[in-house]
Amino acid sequence: MSRDLSPARALSPAQTYARARTPATLVRRAAVWAALLLAVPSFLVLAPAAGVPVARAEAAELKLASVDYQKALESVTEGESARKKLESMFQSKKSAIEKLKSNFDAMQADYQKQSVLLSDSAKREKEDAINLAGMQFQQAYQQSEGEMQQAYQGAMEQLIAKMKTITMSIASERAYTLVIEINEGGVVYASPTIDITDELIKRYNAQNPVK
Hints:
The protein is mainly alpha-helical. 63% of the residues lie in helices and 4% in strands. The longest helix has 55 residues, at 120-174.
């Protein structure tokens, strides 16, 4: 039985962000606003009755921006620091798993060499021991993988929470009506002219310096 013993690989920022469940309603709201903007002219002129002035209603301006949290997670210094810290934390688990795998492989090799000379009862005893060692290895590997993914996801979610706060500050300062996260389903294209990701990264690093 051969299996890759690399420690559980950290989720990519794309996967981590997908699990973070950033509200997809932003995309749907953008579509609704766009539809309304196309359906309603910039002003309405009502046919005046005798002696009644023309009524004019100006449509509210829709000011959009886009942000890429995946790019931000890969770019902020705190994100790289968090990944390195998690990898270091799981080095001890990697060593323990490697020992279990080595023990399992050695037991299998020993059994194959001796099986011809062993009695049926001795074979069953050896096989039971090998199965137990294999189960211990599998369980340790899967547990380590799950813990690594959970810890990584939790760390990235904390970063995204900070990014959302900064994004809202930028939106408030610049009077954006709507900010769309481009990794959410449904966004086919967003003009670079409305992208605030670089500004987000700059402010994030300034507010969260890594020692």
